[in-house]
UniProtKB/TrEMBL annotation:
Family affiliation: Belongs to the 1-acyl-sn-glycerol-3-phosphate acyltransferase family.
Gene Ontology MF, one: acyltransferase activity
GO cellular component annotations of the record: endomembrane system; endoplasmic reticulum
PROSITE patterns: PROKAR_LIPOPROTEIN (PS51257)
Protein name: Lysocardiolipin acyltransferase 1-like isoform X1
Keyword Zinc belongs to the record: no
Any one of the GO BP annotations: phosphatidylinositol acyl-chain remodeling
Bilayer-crossing regions: 15-37, 57-75, 319-338, 344-363
Phospholipid/glycerol acyltransferase domain residues: 90-212
InterPro entries: Acyltransf_C, Plipid/glycerol_acylTrfase
Species, as recorded: Branchiostoma floridae (Florida lancelet)
Keywords for the protein's UniProt record, in alphabetical order: Acyltransferase, Lipid metabolism, Membrane, Phospholipid metabolism, Transferase, Transmembrane, Transmembrane helix
């Protein structure tokens, strides 16, 4: 009979890692095909309703991953600092310690934010992940190419669309542009030496051009209530890349410290916004230095172990997490069975795949397809 420790060891092995990745990929692929895609016609009739429905269905998938990470794989979360107010339009800026920080951030948003409102600025390469890329596109995430002339147009197009339908977006941006590794740290050091700046040990020097553009655009169009500065730290192990997940190298804990900066406290010029972001990152360097010495952030408005202070809220959250597991396990087991045994499901799978492949070839991705249809038929 396995002890608790032996069970956890099994989950943190290659077998456990492969199982997690398989569940994540299959649930996202099949969920996108058969839970999200059927709602596409609503986009032609009520675009705002479509966005609401799809955002909540996508958030249901994020909840499933959080349930796996916390309840199955035993990852603990510790949150300190501020919350996101209900319905608040915010720009979330976070240090990029690993390539998977965005996934662990859902542990924060499910407790102190609004998971269904999150949009993430991602590298364009991620849209090419089989199946999962379709889901990210359908969620209307912002894929950037790192060529400013193209990225500016992409960000303007998607932010204008979200604003036009009244979406109260919580937009996640990593100003560093990439995750913290030895190679990226050396590049950051070279930049610091060239520009007479301090060298950092825990963060990379932020790339402020995109941050300033987004912040100014949101402020100018009255689509921003606050900026939330998020610092993430991993006191005991981390998953730097997807390969670490496959190998079962999950972090034991993830810590978040969040500071809310209301709109009326933000700088009002491009130069001041750039300096403000640069100063935040200098503070973040000191904050993380202390964090890795103490193995936790200062005790400010603590949510220890991810447990809400309100017992009823804690119960609701656990129920939602647990319900997501049988739902997606059912999708993973039933849909492939129906594809094999039902001609209708097999044909529908072929048509759905062809649909996503075609819209990427013609429009550049599902997010552009949605926005182009909206601009053609609904935007005034």
């Amino acid at each position: 009979m396995f002890s608790l420790d032996s069970k956890m060891t099994w989950k943190r092995s290659t077998l456990g890692g492969v199982l997690f990745v398989a569940l994540a990929c299959l649930s996202y692929l099949l969920g996108t095909m058969y839970v999200v895609t059927p709602w596409f016609p609503l986009m032609l009739v009520r675009p705002a309703w479509y966005r609401w429905v799809v955002d909540h269905l996508v958030a249901w998938y994020w909840i499933f991953l959080v349930a796996l990470l916390e309840m199955v794989y035993g990852i603990k979360v510790r949150i300190t600092g501020d919350s996101i107010k209900p319905g608040e339009r915010t720009l979330l800026i976070m240090n990029h310690r690993t390539r998977l920080d965005w996934m662990f951030l859902w542990m924060y948003l499910i407790r102190r934010g609004q998971l269904s409102k999150e949009k993430i600025i991602l590298k364009n390469e991620l849209r090419k992940i089989p199946g999962a890329g379709w889901g990210l596109e359908t969620a209307c995430f912002l894929f950037i190419t790192r060529r400013w002339e193209e990225d500016e147009k992409i960000m303007k197009k998607i932010l204008d669309y979200l604003s036009s339908i009244g979406h109260r977006t919580q937009l996640l941006l990593f100003p560093e542009g990439t995750d913290f590794t030895e190679r990226t740290r050396q590049r950051s050091d070279a930049y610091a030496e060239k520009n007479n700046l301090p060298k950092y040990d825990y963060v990379l020097h932020p790339r402020t051009k995109g941050f300033v553009y987004i912040a100014e655009k949101l402020i100018k169009e009255h689509n921003l209530d606050a900026i939330h500065d998020i610092t993430v730290g991993y006191p005991n192990g981390k998953a730097q890349t997807e390969a670490d997940l496959l190998a079962g190298r999950f972090p034991e804990e993830v810590h978040f410290h969040v500071r809310r900066h209301p709109l009326n406290t933000l700088p009002n010029t491009s130069g001041k916004l750039e300096q403000w972001c640069t100063t935040l990152w200098a503070q973040k360097e000191l904050q993380l230095k202390e964090f890795y010495q103490r193995k936790k952030f200062p005790d400010t408005n603590v949510l220890e172990g991810g447990t809400p202070g309100d017992p009823l809220q804690e119960l609701k959250m656990k129920v939602v997490l647990w319900l997501s597991i049988p739902f997606f396990l059912t999708v993973i087991l039933v849909v492939p069975y129906l594809m094999v045994t039902s001609t209708y499901f097999f044909i529908s799978a072929v048509l759905i795949c062809a649909f996503y492949i075609a819209q990427r070839a013609v429009y550049g991705g599902a997010e552009h397809f949605q926005i182009d249809l909206y601009n053609t038929f609904h935007r005034k």
